């Protein structure tokens, strides 16, 4: 691990002022905010991340989960994943979020990992994590050995000729269907970013993963008021029963009236270069009867543009069955 | 643990002390070869480990950790993980280093009563906080019920993952967890046992939960 200066800022403004001196908030940032440390310290040990300054934000007042006057929920950036998953309101009104978090990582990691940190979770692509290998995400312009190499777990949606790395987060898949908003404080003031706009596709710049600029601090996330009567399921398929990243996952929030789906929100995990919301599948499902034919049709639509890598053609069918089963389970609940 | 009990052992050096002593000559020559100038202070201070201090270590930061009820005023390199601080600086070696990347759970300790992976935390992040390691749970003469249950159920083979398993299991008692074995397995999935003692580990935990 490279040496760094450890700073505990007194307030958000102080943290932002230091971070604003960085050249970037993306890969290779020379200033990093430290939340739970579960991604950052791991990558610092691998020398994938080498910040000169680390800002510990764990003691800033960003650790509350609060009901908002409009009926929505405000979740602070340093709220621990385990606290959020076990929060009574989340379990009752946003259960897809609770389910997703509890199927991710382990109890210890969920006790450490934060809301803000999980939004910025990095890919598990083995080439990204190994500084002896080329990687366009880690070192722009060096190439992507994953395209011809080990890519069984990598993306079938949203990949480019430059990067096929999967976004590994479970929590983010749930936030996508809940249509969360990410609140950011930066050197130029505050702004709110819709969840769908927060993560970027790799394109020709896979080292840019989010809209964050130098000095931007995620302060909190808000969820709109819960959809009354909605049925919510997060289904995760993986190589072992627990403590493993998704090969495919599906988050669904559906509302049913008179045997037909009146509203659908659908996102996939483990298959995309970002948390993969599918407006096409949502449109395909809306107005349809709650039967397997409708669910399978939605799944076919969601995966229509999927492009397999050399080792993971199976993920296309796996993702379809994952989404179909999640919808079936939600409808029957 | 019984290595340190004078009643059960002849007055000979413990395995750990023996290895430390016999290896020191080799270690010194290696250290001289590749340790960067920054860290040389720490290497030279190793004989005074009992004071838990590296007073001449350039860039070291003072912190206070409360470990198992005892306050430790330390100076640590900012890069020091909580795990390395506990094992190397405070020399409580019950907490084990397995993968050092958050994949095995051997390093599990409690911070303010909650289980975390000490390998993915910096010691500096826990200035002033309450740390509990396996040494703080019980002693060979007065074991924590979970330690006694692991012993009674033969819930280990080589024992390397055991302190992490026990720290997780004790924390699990305070967490939302269904009554069935499946719920226990799910909440213990962050602790890998390469010997495969899982069935007995689940038994040990369930016995404590049934008695509680």
Report what the structure shows.
The complex is a heterodimer of chains A (333) and B (212). Chain A is α+β, with helices and mostly antiparallel strands. Chain A has helices at residues 12-19, 40-45, 81-85, 88-93, 95-102, 107-112, 115-119, 171-177, 195-198, 279-285, 292-302, 314-332, and strands spanning 5-7, 31-34, 53-56, 65-67, 73-76, 181-186, 189-194, 217-223, 231-237, 248-257, 260-269, 276-277. Chain A contains 12 helices and 12 strands. In chain A, the strands form 3 sheets. A 5-stranded antiparallel beta sheet of chain A has the order 4-5-8-6-7. A 4-stranded antiparallel beta sheet of chain A has the order 9-10-11-12, sandwiched between helices. In chain A, strands 1-3-2 form a 3-stranded parallel beta sheet, covered by helices on one side. In chain A, a hairpin with a 2-residue loop joins strand 6 (181-186) and strand 7 (189-194). In chain A, helix 10 packs antiparallel against helix 11. The radius of gyration of chain A is 19 Å and the shape is globular. Chain B is of the alpha+beta class and 212 residues long. Among the domains of chain B are: 59-136, Beta-grasp domain (Ubiquitin-like (UB roll), Roll), CATH 3.10.20; 145-211, [2Fe-2S]-binding domain (DNA polymerase, domain 1), CATH 1.10.150.120. Chain B is built from 7 helices and 5 strands, in the order ααββαβββαααα. Chain B has helices at 15-34, 37-44, 82-89, 145-153, 162-172, 181-187, 198-211; strands spanning 61-67, 70-76, 108-111, 114-117, 130-132. The chains are: A alpha+beta (333), B alpha+beta (212). Chain A binds chain B through residues 1, 3-6, 34, 36-38, 41-42, 45, 54, 56, 58, 82, 86, 105-109, 111-112, 241-243, and chain B through 38, 59, 61, 77-79, 81, 100-102, 105, 108, 114-117, 119-122, 124-125, 168, 171-172, 175-176, 185-191.
